[in-house]
Amino acid sequence: MKMILGKKVGMTQIFLEDGKRIPVTVIHAEPNVVLENKTQEKNGYVATKIGYQKTEDKQLNKPQVNYFKKLKQTPFKHIKEFKNVSGYNVGDKIAVDTFNSGDCIDAQAISKGKGFTGAIKRWNFKIGPLSHGAGYPHRYQGSISFGRGGTQGQRVPKGQRMAGHYGHELVTIANLVVVNVELEKNLILIKGSVPGPINSLVLLKTTTKSKKSVEPYKLFVPKDNKPKVEAVTANAENNDVQNADNDKKEGAK
CB–CB of 74/57 below 8 Å? Predict the structure, then answer.
């Protein structure tokens, strides 16, 4: 399994050779460092733990500082453990070139928080009649209890869908495609949208939903607009001729 932790930069667009325009999300991922390997003999399961975004000791609590001292590693702000992943050595760096154009991945992040939201928007309920005779608010969610009495309980059932906090939850979008990877800038361009606000932490890993392979994208590369050497030489010669003529005129005067 391929995996990496990164930061969401924003969205932009990119063009292909055939002229098609693709919306992409830009992920900036500094090299992740392998901190620890879990083995079946020692820990009872197999996993690889990585760290992302270096930080200082004063930004961590004492247990976290002692943990990194025990590992003899530089403190990191974010730590993630991937189960059933092996083959890495402690200290190895996982860069953006782990992924290639055409790879299918899953993107996982905390979605944007919407605050306190009504039931119509939060649960996609239908609104009430919009005529003037409506005797209640148009966006009222309706009854929330069991019934009018008798054998039915006079209470609100557990799990009743009502107004409340919306967003700010862990969201995974599967089967996204990597469009391009820029190793020098530590950037990954992903087709489509990725959950979370700008500068939020994003986890990218090999998808588990689809095994289909996608052909690498052929990006549009603009032609070099630099002037040709011949044109520059010709202009220089013309300038020399003009300067010589000007010198002759000044001498005649």
Answer: no
